[in-house]
């Protein structure tokens, strides 16, 4: 026998209402109760045998009966193809947020320049659009008139086809440069031996250097020339050491001269780090001088400022400056970070 949830609820409601008023049950299918609901009389067997007029059934009993009747029939799940109302759709709690569409993807259909940069050169438009106004600037360019000549120029200076996309993704503003100025800069590099001859770099290493630091081509060459002289004359590095440092950290070629000399002076003269160790860890020049001073003074206070690889308890420069405070205190200073923070307050 199939029991329905709604018929059972209706029957229960009528039965409880009559018992609470002390009247005898009436025919639930009488003409006064329209529309009539057909219920199998055997459903009444689900009700407990309370006599009307006696103790009123408790609310807990009502919900107990309701829970048991609900178990008689499982509500079928909604079909994914079933239409729902607009109000129901608004109440749906989606697990994952809907991703925002990339506006450059839509513009590729309208802009020949963006479409060719993406399809022919493999420029990463998803990175381009994250940079302010770059996509709008590219939309104003004509591929044949503005872009093609720059691509041919980059190939002439040795940039391979598969590297064009990565290069333009990092430095799209090269497309705004005047071709004549670019050619003069490359000629200047060749004539003055700024890259390959002065640094002793091969053609492959020169290309890698330009890809990692595109401003060598598009920016002013004066800081590069000045820093090369500073490294050789003021800091005392030889050409082989300068070549190694430049290939490891190209930013040193365009770094601030004052910061470069101050960092070298403290590390070399105060900490006693020789040139050959600085060449092995040139990243020290990219570290804030204040951080170097704080950690060196703390190690000196603890008697652990040992930077000679031949000595026991040797502390390498990469561990001294590149580790987080917690790891530095635990592995290098052999103390806790609280003591380190207290020491910094005394400086």
From TrEMBL:
GO MF term (any one): nucleic acid binding
SMART domains (UniProt xref): Mterf
Keyword tags: Transit peptide
One GO cellular component term: mitochondrion
One annotated GO biological process: mitochondrial ribosome assembly
Pfam families: mTERF
Protein origin, superkingdom: Eukaryota
The keyword Transferase belongs to this UniProt entry's keyword annotation: no
Database matches in PANTHER family: CGI-12 PROTEIN-RELATED, TRANSCRIPTION TERMINATION FACTOR 3, MITOCHONDRIAL
Record-stated family: Belongs to the mTERF family.
Protein name: Mitochondrial transcription termination factor 3
Species this protein is from: Hymenochirus boettgeri (Congo dwarf clawed frog)
Taxonomic lineage: Eukaryota, Metazoa, Chordata, Craniata, Vertebrata
């Amino acid at each position: 026998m199939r029991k329905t949830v709604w018929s059972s609820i209706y029957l229960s409601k009528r039965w409880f209402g009559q018992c609470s008023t002390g009247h005898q049950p009436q025919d639930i299918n009488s003409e006064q109760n329209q529309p009539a609901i057909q219920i199998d009389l055997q459903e009444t067997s689900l009700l407990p045998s309370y006599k009307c007029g006696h103790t009123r059934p408790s609310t807990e009993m009502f919900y107990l009966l309701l829970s048991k009747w609900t178990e008689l029939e499982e509500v079928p799940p909604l079909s994914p193809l079933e239409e729902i109302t607009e109000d129901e759709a608004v109440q749906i709690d989606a697990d994952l947020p809907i991703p925002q569409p990339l506006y450059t993807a839509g513009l590729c259909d309208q802009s020949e320049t963006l479409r060719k940069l993406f399809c022919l050169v493999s420029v990463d438009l998803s990175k381009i659009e994250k940079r302010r106004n770059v996509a709008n600037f590219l939309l104003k360019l004509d591929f044949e008139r503005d872009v093609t000549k720059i691509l041919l120029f980059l190939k002439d200076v040795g940039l391979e086809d598969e590297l064009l996309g990565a290069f333009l993704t990092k430095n799209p503003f090269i497309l705004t440069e005047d071709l004549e100025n670019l050619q003069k800069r490359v000629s200047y590099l060749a004539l003055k031996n700024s890259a390959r001859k002065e640094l002793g770099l091969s053609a492959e290493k020169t290309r890698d250097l330009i890809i990692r630091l595109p401003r060598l081509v598009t920016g002013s060459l004066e800081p590069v020339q000045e820093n090369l002289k500073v490294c050789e004359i003021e800091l005392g590095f030889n050409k082989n050491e300068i070549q190694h440092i430049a290939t490891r950290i190209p930013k040193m070629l365009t770094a601030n001269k004052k910061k470069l000399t101050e960092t070298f002076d403290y590390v070399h003269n105060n900490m006693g780090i020789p040139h050959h160790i600085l060449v092995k860890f040139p990243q020290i020049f990219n570290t804030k001088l204040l951080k170097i001073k704080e950690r060196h003074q703390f190690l000196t206070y603890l008697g652990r400022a040992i930077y000679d690889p031949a000595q026991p308890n040797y502390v390498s420069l990469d561990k001294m400056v590149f580790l987080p405070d917690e790891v530095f205190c635990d592995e290098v200073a052999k103390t806790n970070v609280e003591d380190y923070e207290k020491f910094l307050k005394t400086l």
